Amino acid sequence: xxxxxxxxxxxxxxxxxxxQLYSILKQMDDAELERDRGAFFGSIKGTLNHLLWGDLLWLxxxxxxxxxxxxxxxxxxxLYKTISIWSSERFRCDNRIIAWAESLKQIELLxxxxxxxxxxxxxxxxxxxxxxxHYFNHQTHHRGQVHAMLTAAGQKAPVSDLLFMPEDT
Length: 169
What we know:
There is one protein chain. By secondary structure, the chain is mainly alpha-helical. Helix 1 (about 5-25) runs parallel beside helix 5, helix 3 (about 45-65) runs parallel beside helix 4 (about 85-105) and helix 3 (about 45-65) runs antiparallel to helix 5. It contains five helices and two strands. It has helices spanning about 5-25, 30-35, 45-65, 85-105, 130-150; strands spanning about 110-115, 120-125.
């Protein structure tokens, strides 16, 4: 389904996209970042927190990392209270994703991933390649929501076309 090279490219793309977002977000005030814009996770900040929480959760499954614990499913939208804290945590996570991607071997992509799903309250076993594809698709989906919210907020959203990612990213 996928190759280690695909995973490396998508890990770089993730870092590039999040870096571009931060350059816009740091100029916005908290009220704009927290305004409910009708998205599934409400605000720009809520969506970004959900995405980071999800990335850390999946990374913990892929690479045996710890992930933020929350009391309830809705608590993760407020996981990182400020955009500068979010940015620091996002940067750390993105670099962990890159390190994991660089260590991934083709043989691992042929295996399965087993984890305890809290949502479904059961053990789940799925091909690892499908889980990784979902991981990057989930990122792109929610960054697309943020892109739309930024545009609606009058901001110039960043370039998101994979084909335009700089080679040195």
